[in-house]
Write a structure and sequence with these properties.
The complex is a heterodimer of chains A (114) and B (117). Chain A has strands at 9-13, 18-23, 31-38, 45-50, 55-56, 61-64, 70-75, 84-92, 108-113. With 114 residues, chain A is an all-beta fold. In chain A, the strands form two sheets. In chain A, strands 1-9-8-3-4 form a five-stranded mixed β-sheet, with no helix packed on it. In chain A, strand 3 (31-38) and strand 4 form a beta hairpin. The N and C termini of chain A lie far apart (37 Å). Chain B is an all-beta fold and 117 residues long. In chain B, strands 2, 4, 5, 6, 9, 10 and 11 form a seven-stranded mixed β-sheet that branches. In chain B, strands 1-3-8-7 form a four-stranded antiparallel β-sheet, with no helix packed on it. In chain B, strand 7 and strand 8 form a beta hairpin. Chain B is globular. The N and C termini of chain B lie far apart (37 Å). Chains A and B meet through strand 3 and strand 4 of A and strand 4, strand 5, strand 9 and strand 10 of B.
Chain lengths: 114, 117
């Protein structure tokens, strides 16, 4: 899996948008960008994923740069319950021998403050 | 979405004993499951890939004789920590691969906190 780099921590005011960046400059053409989050003492929770187009779901939006070397996860209206460690992962497609296998970096600890 | 369940959520065992952790896919069949370990304030580290009906593939540095993995059915993988020691105390998490559409998704269990005393 390509290596990803994220800032170790970020703060965000409750109700504001949280923008979490991720660099994945060595991503290859057959790899998707995935975002997960882990609330303390729980398993990782899937948030969103994308290949090259921007994606949006009920939880978040994912913006991927045109060269695919970086992406930003956007939580549009952060709440206190969004406080967690957010992981950006790049992973190969279905059919690859290690598809589904995730290599976790250190992630970004997002703290949403009242 | 797909659900992956682990049991138990937490366990305390005596040093030298063995502990079995179960990982179940509740509403889908998973030919491949992954086992991770997470020490306090650290990220998840992949231990092994569990394949239904065949031997698990272990990551470098993970002792296969200590961490026994069995994936006997399409909905169940087990991790047995044999002769547990305090340094094995950790948060163990499994994930299961869901083949759907044009990409595979991996959903994670809620984790099992093992404390060896």
């Amino acid at each position: 899996d390509a290596k990803t780099t994220q800032p170790p921590s970020m703060d965000c005011a409750e109700g504001r948008a949280a923008n979490l960046p991720c660099n994945h400059s060595t991503i290859s053409g057959n790899e998707y960008v995935y975002w997960y989050r882990q609330i303390h003492s729980q398993g990782p929770q899937y948030i969103i994923h994308g290949l090259k187009n921007n994606e949006t779901n009920e939880m978040a939006s994912l913006i991927i740069t045109e060269d695919r070397k970086s992406s930003t996860l956007i939580l549009p209206h952060a709440t206190l319950r969004d406080t967690a460690v957010y992981y950006c992962i790049v992973r190969p497609l279905l059919g690859a021998a290690n598809a589904g296998k995730s290599t976790f970096g250190d992630g970004t600890t997002l703290t949403v403050k009242p | 979405g797909a659900v992956v369940s682990q049991h138990p959520s937490w366990v305390i065992c005596k040093s030298g004993t063995s502990v079995k952790i179960e990982c179940r896919s509740l509403d889908f069949q998973a030919t491949t499951m992954f086992w991770y370990r997470q020490f306090p304030k650290q990220s998840l580290m992949l231990m092994a890939t569990s394949n239904e009906g065949s031997k698990a593939t272990y990551e470098q540095g993970v002792e296969k004789d200590k961490f026994l993995i069995n994936h006997a059915s399409l909905t169940l993988s087990t991790l047995t920590v044999t002769s547990a020691h305090p340094e094995d105390s950790s948060f163990y998490i499994c994930s299961a691969r869901v083949p759907q559409g044009t990409n595979t998704e991996a959903f994670f269990g809620q984790g099992t906190r093992l404390t060896v005393v």
